[in-house]
Amino acid sequence: MNDYALPAYYIGLMTGTSLDGIDAVLVDFVGTKPQLVASHTAAMPAPLREQLMRLQAASDDELHLAQLAANAHSMACADVVNQLLAQAKIKPEQVVAIGNHGQTIRHRPELGYTLQIGNHALLAEHTGITVIGDFRSRDVAAGGQGAPLVPAFHQALFAKPAENRVLLNIGGIANLSWLAADGQVLGFDSGPGNVLMDLWIQRHCGLAYDADGNWARSGRPHPTLLAALLSEPYFAMPAPKSTGRDLFHQAWLNAHLQSLSEAITPADVQATLLELSARSISSAILLQGEPSEIFVCGGGAYNSLLLERIADLSGTPVNTTSELGVEPNWVEAYAFAWLAMRCMTGQTGNLPTVTGAKGARILGAIYPH
């Protein structure tokens, strides 16, 4: 990794598909190896989560609602940033920039756009720090998917010569980075990670997620339902490809459940959804070759049953990124600190082999403080 110029503190912000929290990290990019200095997370405020969930589907007065949600999202992010700075005893003027992913509410690269809402100017105003946002649009403008963007970061931080490593992020949607022994990098969204399991347990148990896969463990995968879910054409599409709640949502699941000719218990549905994630992830990995190890980050890293199934199906040891020195919860926010640094130093942030863009591009729009 190249040396970085001073000053070198950057903040990365991430709110993912699961809509469960706001993650922030402070990273020092001095020298040849970046250092994660501090991290902080806060639960997504319930009213904001409801606003964002409502925007996942078409509704009345969407433009107005989206702007209000963007403001609320940025104010919540500002609170997290200020708490992170207080924890690290770092002043705003010591930070070069914040890399803010924003919240995805539409992802339609096949139509030429992707939308991550967030009022970056408001965030800059309330933190006193330059903000970089809208990272994905430049790649889409260049003909790419705009996702995933993390493989370039995974390569920079986690690649190992002469070893085929897989970095697997299991958030609402699962995406993988194939870090080949010869230095080549591939990456794409494999399909659902936690999104369907979270929707189902919220509906039936009122819980935000299935802790450690315990509810899924109490059921059994339903073969007919599993086969129907795996028949989704997205799984057979070649990379580059990306997806989100635009495809894998409650209505998609409901349509498959309604087509069943037999009753199925809620626990068996949960077990089937976990198996869907495990099989689609494992198949996507094995299509690339034989990995030496799989390292998992994101919320799915804490679902032991899901990791067990991926290890069984792929025939590969599965560990979390904590083995590589970064806790699973912080990897994506870390990536957006890295992307902010790349933008501010005039370096490209995408990998055309991953996204399908016409070429490497500098990503992000800069909002000075």
Summarize the structure.
By secondary structure, the protein is an alpha/beta fold.
Helix and strand topology:
Elements: E1 9-14, E2 21-28, E3 35-43, H1 46-54, H2 62-88, E4 95-100, E5 103-108, E6 113-117, H3 120-127, E7 131-133, H4 137-141, H5 150-158, E8 165-170, E9 173-179, E10 185-192, H6 195-205, H7 214-217, H8 223-230, H9 250-258, H10 266-286, E11 293-297, H11 304-314, E12 318-320, H12 331-344, H13 352-355, E13 365-367
Parallel strand pairs: 1-4, 4-7, 8-11, 11-12
Antiparallel strand pairs: 1-2, 2-3, 5-6, 7-13, 8-9, 9-10
Helix pairs in contact: 2-3, 6-10, 8-10, 10-11
Structure description:
It is built from 13 helices and 13 strands. A hairpin with a 5-residue loop joins strand 9 and strand 10. With 369 residues, the chain is of the alpha/beta class. The two termini are 29 Å apart. The strands form three sheets. A six-stranded mixed beta sheet has the order 3-2-1-4-7-13. Strands 10-9-8-11-12 form a five-stranded mixed beta sheet, with helices on both faces. It has a two-stranded antiparallel ribbon with strand order 5-6. Helix 2 runs parallel beside helix 3. The protein has two domains: 175 residues, Nucleotidyltransferase, domain 5; 167 residues, ATPase, nucleotide binding domain (Nucleotidyltransferase, domain 5, 2-Layer Sandwich), CATH 3.30.420.40.
